[in-house]
Amino acid sequence: MYKIGFIGCGNMGKAMIGGIINSRIYKADEIIALDLNECLLSEVKGVFGINTTRDTLYLAENSRIIILSVKPNIYNIILNEIKDKISHDTIVISIAPGISIKSIEDVIGSDKKVIRTMPNTPALVNEGMSAICISNKVSEVEKEEVLKIYSSFGIAEIVSEKLMDCVVGVSGSSPAYVYMFIEAMADVAVLAGMPRDKAYKFAAQSIMGSAKMVLDTGIHPAALKDMVCSPGGTTIEAAAVLEEMGFRSSVISAMKSCIKKSSKLTSK
Ligand SMILES: NC(=O)C1=CN([C@@H]2O[C@H](COP(=O)(O)OP(=O)(O)OC[C@H]3O[C@@H](n4cnc5c(N)ncnc54)[C@H](O)[C@@H]3O)[C@@H](O)[C@H]2O)C=CC1
Ligand SMILES: O=C(O)[C@@H]1CCC=N1
């Protein structure tokens, strides 16, 4: 029996497998994965040394934990395909926006163990942020095990299911906004004469350091911002332009749109 099986090893599946392997929580031979894309499957086998299969039913029958790392529109197809192979000891984990615990139970049975999660791609470098919701069929020991898996590639927190759309906006999707920010900052550094490789390093490390300041010091982000803005200095010039150009309101509108999209998927 494999400890964990991934159906789908695209961006998110690969990131989680990479995080689990890096943290050594499971050995490569305790993990199995499947993907319709043969190149991708040989890639994860080659890079991580895990087992692979083309047989979805074999994976479902032989994995104690199954992670459905496919797009939300494939969920029902896969669940219908594997439902007879899911035992009462199997834990089925969703990582997709809009896929509720109930919608999975409706297909595989409400007597089965289902966990809904929302990870993010920084899992690949063990800096993921994940939310986890547990159904009442999952025991305390199983909850702790899943928390341990998700904590192996970053920070993981139990949240109530009603917060999951919000989680998509604030952590599932947010790495994309941050990459856009890094790209923009690096482009301007290049414009001002810095070589591109250095520009990415300077921009990314500044964002990582600032995030670490928020997490490690517990100081309010506004106070941390004020600590950078010298009176009559350079930073307040930039901050004033960001306010003028609607920086915060752009982020607010973008995230509201993301959360709305996630809740629209859920209500379908
Ligand atoms: N990419 C991200 O940052 C995040 C993605 N998610 C969720 O993770 C899930 C996967 O997303 P990505 O990895 O980004 O997508 P992706 O498109 O990179 O990977 C999905 C993989 O599923 C495979 N696939 C499709 N049908 C299949 C089938 N019938 N059997 C086996 N494999 C099949 C595809 O070949 C593909 O490699 C989605 O539900 C997404 O919403 C959640 C959090 C973050
Ligand atoms: O864009 C998406 O739909 C997925 C969910 C969170 C991140 N990527």
Automatic annotation (TrEMBL):
Entry keyword annotation includes ATP-binding: no
Enzyme class, first EC level, given as a word: oxidoreductase
GO biological process, one term: L-proline biosynthetic process
Organism domain of life: Bacteria
Catalytic activity: L-proline + NADP(+) = (S)-1-pyrroline-5-carboxylate + NADPH + 2 H(+); L-proline + NAD(+) = (S)-1-pyrroline-5-carboxylate + NADH + 2 H(+)
Residues annotated as domain Pyrroline-5-carboxylate reductase dimerisation: 161-265
Pathway(s): Amino-acid biosynthesis; L-proline biosynthesis; L-proline from L-glutamate 5-semialdehyde: step 1/1
Keywords: Amino-acid biosynthesis, Cytoplasm, NADP, Oxidoreductase, Proline biosynthesis
A Gene Ontology molecular function term of the record: pyrroline-5-carboxylate reductase activity
Residues in Pyrroline-5-carboxylate reductase catalytic N-terminal domain copies: 3-97
Enzyme Commission identifier(s): 1.5.1.2
Binding residue positions for NADP(+): 7-12
GO cellular component, one term: cytoplasm
The UniProt record lists the keyword Cell inner membrane: no
Cell location: Cytoplasm
Family of this protein: Belongs to the pyrroline-5-carboxylate reductase family.
Functional note: Catalyzes the reduction of 1-pyrroline-5-carboxylate (PCA) to L-proline.
Name the UniProt record assigns to this protein: Pyrroline-5-carboxylate reductase
Provenance organism: Anaeromicrobium sediminis
